[in-house]
């Protein structure tokens, strides 16, 4: 039987704290006028010390699950696309898996910077299409504020924190994810990078002293690359889905810069009212920007059953890609949503996690004494 990967749940989470352009102008040599005219960004959300990539991701995940008839234990797969993971390892997806109680899911991170959510969505959709997975959770989550050099005016004005999540479910009826284009060009890796902290430049006093753990970017080059690939990728994914550009009701682009989005619209000869833009309020939230924009478009009534959407992104790597999907009415597919209480589920997951840690501790004691007894 054919399986199609339909989006049945969606949710987003952003930190409460809003950082305005005016506040930034008090921190570095910039102005609201410069930032708005060059980027379109007016404000962004910044994580508190208590918020992390995994905590935002978990909240978005619970909100997405709330819209479905699924229990976290029904999930087979959790993918977190992120460029600002909780740790080098374990994967942020495993932290989320534990937080939400997805006890039957395989969980891993996907690193493709701002294109990560599109790549992750495609991986989950393909797993559903082959029949190996039935229910998947795909999250884009970032706390890039932790990697920003707050003294570099060329980058600190751009980024914000947040998370967006989709639940994908297998359905016999056609629709959902239709096609995807995934591309990369590692020769441009140095254009946007966090140079140290990996195996190339392990953390040392020197790397810290030279500020190598912060985002470095050649803005002009990234800008030129982005304007080149956005329209092409959109066209490619559209044609792969057997559609024409005129059939696309809504394009949800990566929210990096208003001028990049306008250039893509011109390249596609599409009016701007068919593009979702919310970067004025969130800045560039990297892999979270597309799912957050989709969530807002749905809430505003801009996405209707039967609509064809293209999600298109670009980012560090260099990476870029686009994914075409037919939005199907989730309510038609699932029994009336059994809204579960998020707080209770989170408490159960936390309790389960504590029990598992305790059992592991007991096991350690037993095995430890057994080994000692053998000696
Ligand atoms: N305030 C005031 N002046 C500034 C600022 C600022 N915040 N930042 C840079 N300037 C100055 C520069 O120093 C430069 O001055 P100069 O001419 O005296 O040298 C001047 O403004 C113009 O600088 P440009 O870099 O040419 O400005 P540009 O119009 O290209 O805008 C920007 C810069 C906004 C960064 C743009 O290049 C851009 O958006 N690039 C794409 C970045 C992007 O999308 N990155 C994310 C990719 S996604 C991911 O994977 C995370």
Termini separation comes to 58 Å
CATH superfamily of the largest domain: Thiolase/Chalcone synthase
Helix content: 25-40%
Number of helices: 13
Strand order of the largest sheet: 1-7-6-4-5
Ligand set: acetyl coenzyme *A
Low-confidence stretches: none
Shape: globular
What is the CATH-assigned architecture of the largest domain? Answer: 3-Layer(aba) Sandwich
Class by alpha and beta content: alpha/beta
* Strand proportion: 15-25%
Number of strands: 13
**CATH-defined fold name of the largest domain:** Peroxisomal Thiolase, Chain A, domain 1
Order of helices and strands: EEHHEHEHEHEHEEEHEHEHHHEEHH
CATH top level label of the largest domain:
Alpha Beta
Tell me the major beta sheet.
Answer: 5 strands, mixed
Mean pLDDT: 94
- Radius of gyration (CA) equals 21 Å
Number of domains: 2
Characterization of this structure:
The chain has 375 residues and is of the alpha/beta class. The chain has 13 helices and 13 strands. It has helices at 21-27, 32-39, 53-66, 92-100, 116-130, 153-156, 205-209, 219-240, 258-268, 279-282, 289-299, 330-333, 342-374; strands at 4-13, 18-20, 43-45, 77-81, 106-110, 135-143, 161-171, 176-184, 192-193, 216-217, 250-253, 308-315, 319-326. Strand 4, helix 4 (92-100) and strand 5 (106-110) form a beta-alpha-beta unit. The model has no long low-confidence stretch (mean pLDDT 94). The structure holds acetyl coenzyme *A. Residues 30, 34-35, 38-39, 113-114, 153-154, 157, 192, 217, 219-220, 222-223, 226, 256-257, 284, 286, 315-316 line the site of acetyl coenzyme *A.
């Amino acid at each position: 039987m054919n399986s199609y990967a339909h989006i049945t749940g969606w949710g987003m989470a952003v930190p409460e704290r809003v950082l305005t352009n005016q506040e930034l102008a008090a921190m570095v040599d910039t102005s609201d006028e410069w930032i708005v005219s060059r980027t379109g960004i007016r404000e962004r959300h910044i994580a508190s010390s208590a918020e992390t990539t995994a905590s935002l991701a978990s909240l978005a995940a619970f909100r997405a699950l709330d819209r479905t008839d699924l229990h976290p234990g029904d999930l087979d797969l959790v993918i977190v696309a992120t460029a600002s993971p909780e740790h080098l390892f374990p994967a942020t997806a495993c932290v989320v898996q534990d937080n939400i109680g997805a006890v039957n899911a395989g969980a891993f991170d996907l690193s493709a910077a701002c294109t990560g959510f599109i790549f992750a969505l495609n991986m989950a959709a393909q797993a559903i299409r082959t029949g190996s997975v039935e229910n998947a959770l795909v999250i884009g989550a970032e706390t890039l504020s932790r990697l920003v050099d707050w003294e570099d005016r060329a980058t600190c004005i751009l980024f914000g924190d947040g998370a967006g999540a989709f639940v994908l479910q297998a359905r016999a009826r056609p629709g959902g994810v239709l096609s995807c284009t995934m591309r990369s060009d590692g020769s441009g890796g140095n254009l946007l990078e966090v140079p140290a902290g990996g195996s190339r430049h392990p953390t040392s006093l020197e790397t810290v002293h030279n500020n190598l753990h912060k985002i470095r970017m050649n803005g002009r080059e990234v800008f030129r690359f982005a304007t080149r690939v956005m329209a092409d990728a959109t066209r490619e994914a559209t044609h792969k889905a057997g559609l024409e550009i005129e059939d696309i009701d809504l394009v949800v682009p990566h929210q990096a810069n208003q001028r990049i989005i306008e250039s893509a619209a011109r390249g596609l000869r599409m009016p701007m009212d068919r593009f979702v833009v919310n970067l004025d309020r969130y800045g560039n939230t990297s892999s979270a920007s597309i799912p957050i924009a989709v969530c807002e478009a749905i809430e505003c009534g801009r996405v209707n059953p039967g609509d064809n959407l293209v999600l298109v992104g670009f980012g560090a790597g260099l990476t870029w890609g686009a994914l075409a999907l037919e939005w199907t009415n989730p309510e038609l597919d699932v029994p009336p949503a059994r809204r579960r209480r998020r707080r209770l589920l989170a408490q159960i997951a936390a309790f389960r996690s504590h029990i598992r840690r305790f059992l592991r501790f007991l096991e350690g004691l037993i095995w430890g004494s057994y080994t000692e007894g053998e000696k």
